[in-house]
Amino acid sequence: MTDYRLLPPPTWSPTTEGHWLAAGRGALAVQICHRCGAHRWPPTEICYRCRCIEWGWAELPGTGTVFTYTWTDSPVSSRLAHLGVYNATVITLDGTEGEPVRMLGRVTGVDKATLACDLPVEVHFEPFDAVVAIPVWRPRRH
Prior knowledge:
The protein is globular, with a radius of gyration of 15 Å. It has one domain. Helices cover 6% and strands 36% of the residues. The chain contains 1 helix and 8 strands, in the order H-E-E-E-E-E-E-E-E.
């Protein structure tokens, strides 16, 4: 488990609040347009598809597949040094409407030989504080 106290807090705003609060409850949520039903990530104030400004939050099943990834042998910040070698992975989320919804994250329980594109993954949550948790991914259990 990562000690997130060593990292800066998640970016919190009225536009991202629903995502972080859902993660704190152990749920993966992304924005959904109230007019056309398109899901979107990262959160924005206006729908990319129909330009509607009315939106809410939709909980997703918490599964997806690896779209792409890279391994970081040297941390980009000294605050990440405790992770050692880690991956930065883009996950295509299951259960969305509209353009594919992809989220940047980290896959745990893998190494350079086992992390691959199209790997099925599932989300789990690592607490950041008493309210917020960080979505982290692991290979899907069948």
